[in-house]
Amino acid sequence: MDTIPSVLACDVGNSAIHLARVNGEDVAGSTTMHLTDLDGLTNVLRALWEQMPAPKKVVAASVNGQGLKALEAAVGETLKEPVLAIGRDLPLPIETDLPSPESIGVDRLCGAVAAFDHFGVACVIADFGTAITIDCVNDDGVFLGGAIMPGLQMGANSLAMQTAQLFKVELTEPKWVFGKDTRQAIVGGLVFAARGALRELAEAYATELGHWPVVIITGGDAKFVCQDPGASELVQCQVDDLVLRGVAIAYYKTLLK
After folding, report:
1. d(CA 18, CA 220)
2. Spatial CA neighbour of 235 closest among 244, 245, 222
3. Same-domain check for residues 106 and 231
4. Residue 204 and residue 160: Cα distance in Å, rounded?
5. Which of 23, 92, 97, 252 has fewest C-beta within 10 Å?
């Protein structure tokens, strides 16, 4: 490949569309558009596209059909380009040990392929977004599967909606162990539960693998779970644009075949 193509990478999630321009290892212009407010999406697309050298493509990983339709409409109107959807127009980017790999969220597979592409060894990939996913890739680069649980904000909203006396809280990193009021108790419960799930699953995966994997965190709420990955005994690094990197890798893999 003489020229590395530029990719307008799009991650269409449950609550937002994340976009960035990717060229090889370089990621720039990361932008998040919430699905409840896509009024500025065409302007964002145009601005990113104009900064990308040719050749260039629009590639998306989507777990939200309606969100993908909205993205495709905006891209068609603004850029006059097709959106290459992973799993529909492009093959899945990573080998799996799953009976039905097409049923797995492609965002999880994109995060996994980006993590393994960078480290080249067994990885645990924990994405703290609308939902929390904690997945594992072995030393051969095979996606083994993982776990899905409610995200921190989903948990907070659920407590507020389904209890008589609990209320919606703003998430923060708990600086306490014992929650001294209801707000602290809710925030601590949510964050400590997420930390515990990450540790428990990482240990279980390590047992199955026979050694400790690299642990990578990503997603909008990752900062609450681990403020300083460099000082953590469990987490090696935080990569906010992990899935978008994987989206571009999914496209690059098709060029090598």
Report:
1. 11
2. 222
3. yes
4. 32
5. 97
Are 121 and 145 members of one domain?
Answer: yes
Spatial separation of the C-alpha atoms in residues 179 and 189, rounded to whole Å? 9
This prediction has a pTM of 0.95
Q: Average pLDDT in the 225-238 region?
A: 91
Enter the tokens of residue 205.
Answer: 């995966």
Q: For residue 90, tell me if it sits in a domain.
A: no
- How crowded is residue 6: how many other Cβ atoms within 10 Å of its Cβ? 21
Cα 39–chain centre separation: 23
Active-site option among 11, 107, 135, 241: 107
Tell whether 41 and 137 lie within a shared domain. no
Identify the band that residue 1 occupies on the pLDDT scale cut at 50, 70 and 90.
low
Band of residue 3 on the pLDDT scale cut at 50, 70, 90: confident
Active site residue 221: no
Q: Tell me, what's the pLDDT at 2? A: 64
Whole-angstrom distance, CA of residue 25 vs CA of residue 230: 21
Residue 231 tokens, joined: 């000082």
Tokens (6 digits) for 182? 């209801």
What does the pLDDT look like over 19-32, one tens digit per residue?
999 999 999 999 99
CA distances from 17 to 11, 36, 208 (A): 6, 10, 34
A 10 A CB-CB count for 30 gives 15
